[in-house]
Model the fold of this input.
Amino acid sequence: MQEEYQREQKMHLMNLLKENDVIKFGKFTLSSGKKSDYYVDMKKAITDPEILQSIAEIITDKISEDNIDKIAGPALGAVPIATAVSLNSKKPLLMIRKEKKDYGTSKLIEGDLKAHDNVIVVEDVATTGNSLLKAIDAIEKNNGVVKRAFVVVDRCEGAAENFDKKGIKLEPLISIREFL
Done:
């Protein structure tokens, strides 16, 4: 019964992404400089409340049996996702900066991370997974324990393998192969 419900949730999210033209096909240059036949426009997705709600419900269901203390996401793309999951799951939010700021409190992690907090991390799109791995390193250096890592769309270009090397399973909500 739970598997059927999860399949329905996934199909609903895929339909929302298709309806909102989040996966675009053509010739694109990615931020890495690499050429691609498709582009995952997750900024379009993470600004849509229905898509965010769907993502939050899926992730909240997946972690409902876990002992999770915090929901974390690296700036910028993952912050709306982490916020939605935080609101849906009633778990506090952590925002991971790309680098420490030179003013104010100079924090790399915004939010109240305590030693040994169990944390899940979320990301919008993973190619190699490097930005999410950097966020995980920041959490671990501050004595947090990363239990699970979720990405909305995995481009299937090495992220899962990089996470395996780190000893953490990357859990995509959707694989780009499911769109292609």
User: Anything to note?
Assistant: Residues 49-179 form a domain with the Rossmann fold fold (CATH 3.40.50.2020). The radius of gyration is 16 Å. The first strand starts at residue 23 and ends at 29. Strands lie at 23-29, 35-40, 70-74, 93-96, 109-110, 118-126, 145-154, 170-175.
